[in-house]
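Sample entry (166 residues):
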Amino acid sequence: MSLATSTPDGRPSVRYVLLRGLDERGLRFYTSYFSTKGKQLERNPFAAVAFFWPRLERQVRAEGAVHVLSEDESDAYFASRPRGHRLAAWASEQSEPIASRGLLEDRYAHFDERFGGDEVPRPHSWGGYAIAPERFEFWQGQANRMHDRFEYLRQGGTWTMRRLQP
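Predicted structure, serialized as tokens:
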């Protein structure tokens, strides 16, 4: 999904992340808390996401407040990842500059050796977020650009729906 956050001065910032779950709490994804997106969410805990299926001419958008998932939930998800992915979370200070690819590979090798055959624990700088949607929009392309658009807004515990013009 494409994830949009904003800089402290309100500039939009977007990138793709993997949707790792959806439940009554919202849409879940995981990353470094110290990544660009993590720092932006700490200062402004709101985000928007978009999914697009061009062949189906469909798009879904969601917007809402973001909260950090519990350490237990982050630990459980981290433990389910392949070992190489867990080592990469240790090796990479996500979004920070590095002088060369070789230095990054050296860091990876260091953590591979450090943990040896042991389990690779979750770094405290890495974990999950959930976006609690307050708004969804569903779009379906139609002939002559007479698209169908439906907006769902959460007000308290109730969702209301309305049709939007294309």
